[in-house]
Design goal:
Pfam family, one: NUDIX
Strand order of the largest sheet: 2-1-4-3
Number of strands: 12
CATH topology of the largest domain: Nucleoside Triphosphate Pyrophosphohydrolase
Number of domains: 2
Distance between the termini: 40 Å
Protein name: Nudix hydrolase domain-containing protein
CATH architecture of the largest domain: Alpha-Beta Complex
Radius of gyration: 21 Å
Structural class: alpha+beta
InterPro entries: DUF4743 (IPR031804), NUDIX_hydrolase-like_dom_sf (IPR015797), NUDIX_hydrolase_dom (IPR000086)
CATH class of the largest domain: Alpha Beta
Order of helices and strands: HEEHEEHHEEHEEEHHEEEHHH
Largest sheet: 4 strands, mixed
Number of helices: 10
GO molecular function: 8-oxo-dGDP phosphatase activity
């Protein structure tokens, strides 16, 4: 039986096939590649924000056009106004906008209450290039990125023993998202200011009580990428930096046994490959974690062209490009036709 449905559960959206109307979000009026895509409802809320007397303004002393609306809105794009061109100004505007939406109860099912993380994610001009701290165009509160269809980034590590078993955590039932599901050995988003390995080392200690001297032995093995649409319709294109960490079996090296620390993980269990695949088929894993495990199983020879009829499609879809550059004027809009 094919494992393709595991991929389809996560890589479940395409700009090429959607029938939904999406307006591109650009850094400027003249840019050629969008950084995100907006539903018309979000565009309307941005227009409302533009007309609000308390919308954010750049320093008027340094900018003659400080009183113009912060967002440019046309039939083919939304963009930062010509007065907002720096990392600091874009970030300050997004902070003010998102906090206003949160405080007034807009999109409470996405950004309200405990869902708000107080964690800033970097947004890059090009999703697959210059993904460094210096290359970021601005930052935005983590949970708000899905409202704009921005690409976000994370680190996912598979910790496995020398005899081929995999350490699998169960997410705490109190987690804001995907409570109680199975996860990758260690995983987390990359906040602004941290490099991927720095994020992984931080997550290893916070989630699994693994000190830096163990975590730094993880091997960088590539990336996984997919275009995910949430159950409520928001767009979450994501890129995960993928790591492997081979450790001794528990009876050989007890210091390599992961243990919950920060309350995000309920427990860890050492599973065979067969058990992992069974849990993946029964949808017990968080969808993107199942994709990272598929990548692991392919690289380690457990999934092959001989035992998986959809091997090529699985392989290509878990290393997807999002296609932003093909839709500078939007998707299913009058300007895109």
């Amino acid at each position: 039986m094919t494992l393709l449905p595991i991929v389809e559960r996560c890589d479940n959206f395409s700009l090429d096939t959607t029938k939904e109307q999406l307006v591109p979000f650009h850094l400027s009026k003249d840019s050629t590649v969008p950084v995100g895509f907006l539903y018309p409802s979000i565009v309307q809320h941005l227009l409302d924000y533009n007309s609000a007397p308390d919308h954010w303004r750049p320093n008027a002393e340094n900018n003659a056009t400080a009183d113009e609306p912060p967002f440019g809105v046309s039939s083919s794009r939304v963009y930062f106004s010509p007065s907002i061109t720096t990392f600091q100004d874009r970030s300050a505007l997004c902070k003010h906008l998102c906090e206003k939406w949160r405080d007034t109860g807009l999109f409470s099912d996405v950004i309200g209450g405990r869902l708000w993380r107080n964690e800033l994610y970097p947004i890059y001009p090009l999703a697959m290039r210059d993904n460094t701290t210096e290359g970021a165009a601005f930052v935005m509160e983590r949970v708000c990125c899905a409202l704009f269809g921005f690409v976000t980034y994370g680190v996912h590590m598979t910790m496995y023993t020398e005899d081929g078993r995999i350490w699998v955590p169960r997410r705490a039932k109190t987690k804001q998202t995907w409570p109680g599901l199975l996860d990758n050995s260690v995983a987390g988003g990359i906040p602004y200011g941290l490099k991927p390995m720095e994020s992984l080392i931080k997550e290893c200690m916070e989630e699994a009580s693994l000190p830096e001297e163990i975590a730094k032995n993880a091997k960088t093995v590539g990336c996984a990428s997919y275009f995910y649409q949430t159950r409520t319709g928001w767009l979450q294109p994501e890129v995960e930096y993928v790591y492997d960490l081979c450790v001794p079996a528990p009876d050989v090296g007890s210091q390599y046994i992961p243990k919950p620390l920060d309350g995000e993980v309920e427990s860890f269990e050492l599973m065979t490959v067969e058990e992992v695949i069974q849990h993946m088929r029964s949808e017990e894993f968080k969808p993107n974690c199942a994709v990272v495990l598929l990548d692991f199983l392919i690289r380690h020879g457990h999934i092959t062209p001989e035992n998986e009829p959809n091997y090529i499609e699985i392989l290509t879809r878990i290393h997807a490009r999002f296609g932003f550059e093909r839709y500078p004027n939007g998707v299913n809009t009058s300007s895109a036709e």
